[in-house]
Amino acid sequence: MAVSSQANIDESTLVAQAREGDTVAFGELVRRYEGKIFRLAQHITQNREDAEDVLQETFLKAYEHLDQFQGNSKFYTWVVRIAVNQSLMKLRRRKTDRSVSLDETIDTGEDTIVREIAAWGEDPEERFSREELGEILDSAVQGLETPYRSVFVLRDIEELSTEETANALGLSIPAVKSRLLRARLQLREKLTRQFKRKGDDAFAYM
Amino acid sequence: MLTCKDFLHELSDYLDASLDAKLRAKLEEHISECPNCWVIADTTRRTIQIYKGMEPYPVPADVQERLMAALERKMADKRG
Questions:
Q1: ipTM of the predicted structure?
Q2: Which residue of A has its CA nearest to B15?
Q3: Largest CB tally within 10 Å, which of A165, A185, B10, B11?
Q4: Could you report the per-residue pLDDT of A179-194, keeping only the tens digit for each?
């Protein structure tokens, strides 16, 4: 569907063409973002089958509702929002995750707990193979509860701004910030256990 | 004087460079004197960096085929 001559065209031109009914242009938009959407869906749903469904549903919905895209945000951010909603719906349907609601009040009193303090050794990229590193990073993210995981995935993996993340998740900016801090600190703990310099032991802190 | 707890509270904004110069200077003063907070800041910065460097997942060929087939059906419906 996508043609290589479309590869250098900027996003807003492609969106305009797609809105005029140019299916090749829409195909190029899909090709550009499918990998990121698939990754986001896997991180949030934590289920491969669900992620495949989310990928498909997201782009079908985007195509169907293209005329509702305002153009005052980036197309990618708009698609992310659809993908997040689809992913959360999957989680709710499974009901295996009790922390699916993003609205619940979260006790942030513990957000600054740090247990593991150790400097990292050589670059993890040098110490582990790409695959091993990917597994370590993925499983650390999977250990986060949904409210933290979704904020972290949007802010630090998909690199959305704080405001874009707040919009996509229907959260306030302070809520995004406090969840991001907590997610980052939790991941730092988990990764430090893997990446700390040999011989460095954790000691109690605070 | 800034405590370690104050420092941790501002850590995200510090690493995102979204603090005003005055607070930033206070935090920098703190980590220059507190090895624990320096390590936490450094390892948190590297945590963020390592995730930012992750490649998107390649979409497997069969998944992509299904996606494109579904889209083509949708496009045909919309045209029709």
A1: 0.91
A2: A181
A3: A165
A4: 999 999 999 999 999 9
Which residues of A are less than 8 Å from B13 in CB distance?
177
Residues A58 and A155 occupy one common structural domain? no
List pLDDT tens digits, range A60-109. 999 999 999 987 788 999 999 999 999 999 998 886 555 555 554 455 55
Taking the C-alpha atoms of residue B40 and residue B14, their distance in angstroms, rounded to an integer, is 12
Query: Domain end: A29, A64, A94, which one?
Result: A94
- Asked if the C-beta of A188 comes within 8 angstroms of chain B's C-beta atoms, the answer is yes
pTM for this structure?
0.86
- CB spacing of B46 vs A63 below 8 angstroms: no
Find all residues with CB under 8 Å of A122, minimum gap 6, and list them.
Answer: none
Averaging pLDDT over each range in A1-15, A109-123, B1-15, which range is the top one?
B1-15
Q: Which domain holds residue A176?
A: 98-206
